[in-house]
């Protein structure tokens, strides 16, 4: 198992390198650069040229990449070309709010999806089943921004009971209740998504397990139906869900870009958006690397957890 | 085992199929087929019997080119066909056919029987286009299916009828050798006899040669002239039907015979059970 | 025909399932009795209703299927009238069941030990430790080597034959009075099949367990059964003790079946007689005999009127007009 993990980590290195190179090329191909974004009638052309040299943008592209890469090997993600803060520090400070939002949404979403999916499968074609399937369909198909804006309209503008943006009230003490109130709406949006997707997975997985011969064996042994379901069916039904949950993490990071924008949530998503808008090359590169690490990490984690929950899976190479 | 043992007197006939030290090893150290040699002469049926994992089906697949042998030779009509490319194999297809256990999975569910049977005729240009319909009728007649079957789809047939369609398809190219890979194992008892009788009748009518692969001794005994017993990738015994059943030499053959249930309650308890390793 | 020795009495059992065409009756008016310790085989082809009969008795039918009538009397109690808890107390305890597919009948993510102990703890009220010891003992009895190690294994580590031994150990662990075995050896190789059959016989003789053997294989019937029930298209067409059935079958279907199996015990290479045609796909609307379209003796009467299962010899019942005619018009109905 340890060997397997090490091998997977070694494979990850060329993947990460490739991802950063591709990202760098695409970024360079996009029109504009950090200095262009500063252009305005008040700033003389010489000042802009000086800025360009200062940021190293006059060097050939491969030299720019090489500089970034050699710094990376020393654990240095460089400085933002807009705020001059260290990129590593910026990402870390934005990570907390994003993880808070995503963690809570993931937990609540899964906590809704698993029992509801199981119940829905056990009572296939019942009213509850139809309700769950419809709800799940809505959760997947309503776009995040639409649901987000709808919630803001109802709760902030109309009912005026929830704050529409930020993580804490400006000038407030930033206490637990304050953060909680700010979280409610973004969490609802993300949870609707997570639950929507996973109800369907859990339901179909459970439906498949309910057909299996070993459940008939369990019943033939005289186990009560609750035991048959809880001990024999649920565990088998949740094994494939591990994979789905592993994919949830990158999806959530992607969704955070939109959600944090709508609710002005000071997280990774918002940082991503603003750094792209200002062509903040070093920050974009840092965020991209982080995203790639998260995807690879989530995949590896999924495979490890899979081996732990399914005795048939053994990694021996 | 010496070669003389399993070459019978064939009045100087050339074998239609010869396997020479055929091997199939898989990367995971599995010796599925481990040095198998035998001959099949024109017009005879060689029964190949063994339990699951004995390698009997792998042999069938190698002969028709669905699997590549690791080592050894397959001679068909005197020609080595073990190393043929898929294109060269295609030309041989018409002479070498296989009938599977479950014909349903190999019949395209969206095509009518007439089209399913016409397809190989067209591809291999067996008959001129204008005669195809007549040829399909002839094939259906051969396997005792009504002409009205032509316009129906595979799912409208019972298991036994589908196997007849599978056989008709194999026959359409006028093959010399047909590999029957567990052709009756998936069928009900009352239908098995129909198919076994059909295979025997067709052999007489069309002078066919069969390699009949099965795990059930009863069916193998009924259709075969000679029988080869396989165990763990090797042929442990090969001989005439009477020899195998009355005077089995190898302990595994004896164990297999002992273990096969006989449909006569008076004979129960008369057998001793030998434990077979593996 | 009331017999106090009856351990189990199935009476006019009728089971159907819902389909697009309405309710399809797959077990139609099946009746039989079983005594303690005897082996009764139900033999039939696919779709004959033999497995559904067994599942109905255990009340293990899948969704969509339901029992439409009849009784399953086990020691005088009608199992079909018990509540769920009472039925759970019987299953795996006094009546247990093993299935055709040993590869899929065990839960892949639970250890053999867990799956063995489960029912022992529930039914025999043993502690975990006691149950573990009993389970090891059972695995030893079914001839598995290294039972302690196997207890900790997951099913995927065992071969098909070993898994079926585990299934038998599990089914026999509470010393049931009836063991229902639904095609227990069909998925196994012949040499393994012979061992499993021998094992079932020995274990059940030792504990006095009656076996209800569901199979399509007349060879297996000849080896195992005391009495045989032949089913065709949802109905019992013949019932007799095993020797009578093989020597003097009365129903043309039974006769045809026996003639259509290739014999290992004779050198007679005569052509096998096969039963022409196939089982009718839908049979509940057939008014007359359901074997009519395949029967060599079919008459007008067979087409018009369904024969009843009647006495055609000592403890020998047949559902056939022709057999009744030959027996001289004995019109005594087998089960009332």
Note the main attributes of this structure.
heterotrimer; A: 317 residues; mainly alpha; MetI-like fold; 11 helices; 75% helix; globular; C: 336 residues; alpha/beta; eight-stranded mixed beta sheet; four-stranded antiparallel beta sheet; 12 helices; 12 strands; 33% helix; 24% strand
Structure, described:
The complex is a heterotrimer of chains A (317), B (278) and C (336). Chain A has 317 residues and is mostly helical. Chain A has a domain at 94-269 and 294-309: MetI-like fold. In chain A, 75% of the residues lie in helices and 0% in strands. Chain A has helices at residues 2-29, 45-54, 61-73, 87-122, 127-141, 144-158, 176-210, 213-220, 225-262, 268-277, 281-309. Chain A is globular. The N and C termini of chain A lie close together (8 Å). Chain B contains nine helices and ten strands. Chain B is α/β, with parallel strands linked by helices. In chain B, helix 3 (113-123) packs across helix 4 and helix 5 runs parallel beside helix 6. Chain B has one domain (3-267): P-loop containing nucleotide triphosphate hydrolases (Rossmann fold, 3-Layer(aba) Sandwich), CATH 3.40.50. In chain C, 33% of the residues lie in helices and 24% in strands. Chain C is built from twelve helices and twelve strands. In chain C, strands 6-7-8-3-9-10-12-11 form an eight-stranded mixed β-sheet, with helices on both faces. A four-stranded antiparallel β-sheet of chain C has the order 2-1-4-5. In chain C, strand 11 and strand 12 (316-318) form a beta hairpin. Chain C is globular, with a radius of gyration of 21 Å. The relative contact order of chain C is 0.13.
């Amino acid at each position: 198992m340890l060997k397997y993990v090490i091998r997977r980590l070694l494979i990850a290195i060329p993947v990460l390198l490739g991802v950063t190179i591709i990202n760098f090329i695409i970024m360079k191909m996009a029109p504009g650069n950090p200095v262009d974004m500063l252009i305005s009638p008040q700033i003389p052309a010489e000042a802009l040229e000086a800025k360009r040299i200062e940021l190293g943008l006059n060097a050939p592209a491969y030299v720019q990449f090489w500089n970034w890469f050699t710094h990376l090997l020393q654990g240095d993600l460089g400085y933002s070309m807009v705020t001059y803060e260290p990129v590593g520090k910026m990402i870390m400070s934005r990570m907390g709010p994003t993880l808070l939002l995503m963690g809570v949404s993931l937990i609540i979403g899964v906590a809704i999806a698993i029992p509801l999916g199981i119940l829905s499968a056990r009572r296939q074609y019942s009213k509850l089943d139809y309700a769950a399937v419809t709800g799940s369909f809505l959760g997947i198909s309503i776009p995040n921004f639409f649901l987000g804006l709808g919630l803001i309209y109802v709760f902030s503008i109309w009912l005026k009971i929830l704050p529409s943006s930020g993580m804490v009230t400006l000038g407030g003490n930033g206490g637990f209740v304050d953060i909680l109130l700010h979280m409610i709406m973004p969490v609802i949006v993300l949870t609707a998504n997570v639950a929507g997707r996973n109800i369907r997975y859990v339901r179909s997985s459970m439906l498949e397990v309910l057909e299996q011969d070993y459940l008939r064996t369990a019943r033939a042994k005289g186990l009560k139906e609750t035991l048959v379901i809880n001990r024999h069916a649920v565990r088998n039904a949740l094994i494939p869900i591990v994979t789905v949950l592993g994919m949830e993490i990158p999806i959530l990071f992607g969704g955070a870009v939109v959600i944090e924008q709508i609710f002005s949530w000071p997280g990774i998503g918002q940082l991503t958006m603003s750094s792209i808008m200002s062509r903040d090359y070093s920050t974009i590169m840092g965020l991209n690397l982080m995203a790639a690490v998260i995807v690879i990490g989530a995949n590896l984690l999924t495979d490890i957890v899979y081996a732990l929950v399914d005795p048939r899976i053994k990694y021996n190479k | 085992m010496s070669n003389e043992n399993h070459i019978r007197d064939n009045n100087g006939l050339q074998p239609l199929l010869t396997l020479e030290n055929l091997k199939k090893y898989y990367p995971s150290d599995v010796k599925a087929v481990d040095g198998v040699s035998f001959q099949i002469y024109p017009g005879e049926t060689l029964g190949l019997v063994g339990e699951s994992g004995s390698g009997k089906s792998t042999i069938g697949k190698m002969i028709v080119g669905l699997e590549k042998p690791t080592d050894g030779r397959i001679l068909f009509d005197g020609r080595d066909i073990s190393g043929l490319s898929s294109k060269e194999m295609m030309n041989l297809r018409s002479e070498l056919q296989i009938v599977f256990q479950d014909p349903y999975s190999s019949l395209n569910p969206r095509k009518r029987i007439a089209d399913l049977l016409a397809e190989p005729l067209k591809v291999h240009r067996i008959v001129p286009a204008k005669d195809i319909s007549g040829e399909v009728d002839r094939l259906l007649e051969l396997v005792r299916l009504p002409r009205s079957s032509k316009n129906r789809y595979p799912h409208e047939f019972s298991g036994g009828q589908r196997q007849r369609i599978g056989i008709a398809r194999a026959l359409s190219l006028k093959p010399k050798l047909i590999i029957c890979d567990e052709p009756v194992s998936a069928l009900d008892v009352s239908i098995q006899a129909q198919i076994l009788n059909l295979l025997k009748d067709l052999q007489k009518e069309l002078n066919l040669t069969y390699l009949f692969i099965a795990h059930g001794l009863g069916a193998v005994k009924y259709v075969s002239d000679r029988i080869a017993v396989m165990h763990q990738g090797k042929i442990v015994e090969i001989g005439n039907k009477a020899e195998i059943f009355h005077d089995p030499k190898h302990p595994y053959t004896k164990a297999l015979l002992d273990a096969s249930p006989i449909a006569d309650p008076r004979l129960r308890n008369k057998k001793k059970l030998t434990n077979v390793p593996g | 025909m009331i017999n106090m020795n009856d351990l189990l009495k199935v009476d006019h059992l009728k089971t159907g399932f819902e389909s697009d065409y309405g309710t399809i009756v797959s077990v139609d008016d099946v009746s039989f009795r079983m005594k303690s310790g005897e082996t009764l085989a139900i033999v039939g082809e696919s779709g004959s209703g033999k497995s559904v009969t067994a599942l109905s008795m255990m009340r293990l039918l899948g969704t969509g299927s339901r029992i439409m009538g009849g009784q399953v009397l086990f020691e005088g109690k009608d199992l079909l009238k018990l509540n769920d808890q009472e039925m759970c107390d019987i299953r795996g305890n006094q009546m247990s069941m093993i299935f055709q597919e040993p590869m899929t009948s065990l839960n892949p993510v639970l250890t053999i030990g867990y799956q063995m102990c489960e029912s022992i703890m529930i039914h025999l009220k043993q502690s975990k430790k006691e149950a573990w010891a009993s389970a090891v003992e059972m695995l030893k009895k079914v001839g598995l080597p290294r039972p302690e190690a196997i207890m900790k294994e997951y099913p995927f580590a065992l071969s098909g034959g070993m898994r079926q031994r585990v299934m038998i150990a599990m089914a026999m662990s509470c010393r049931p009075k009836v063991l229902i075995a639904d095609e227990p050896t069909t998925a196994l190789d012949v040499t393994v099949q012979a061992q499993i059959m021998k094992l079932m016989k020995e274990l059940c003789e030792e504990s006095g367990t009656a076996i209800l053997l569901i199979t399509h294989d007349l060879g297996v019937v000849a080896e195992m059964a005391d009495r045989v029930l032949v089913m065709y298209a949802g109905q019992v067409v013949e019932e007799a003790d095993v020797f009578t059935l093989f020597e003097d079958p009365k129903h043309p279907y039974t006769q045809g079946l026996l003639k259509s199996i290739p014999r290992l015990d004779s050198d007679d290479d005569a052509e096998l007689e096969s039963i022409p045609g196939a089982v009718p796909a839908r049979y509940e609307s057939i008014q007359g005999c359901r074997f009519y379209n395949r029967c060599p003796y079919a008459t007008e009467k067979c087409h018009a009127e369904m024969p009843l299962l009647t006495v055609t010899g000592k403890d020998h019942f047949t559902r056939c007009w022709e057999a009744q005619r030959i027996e001289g018009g004995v019109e005594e109905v087998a089960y009332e």
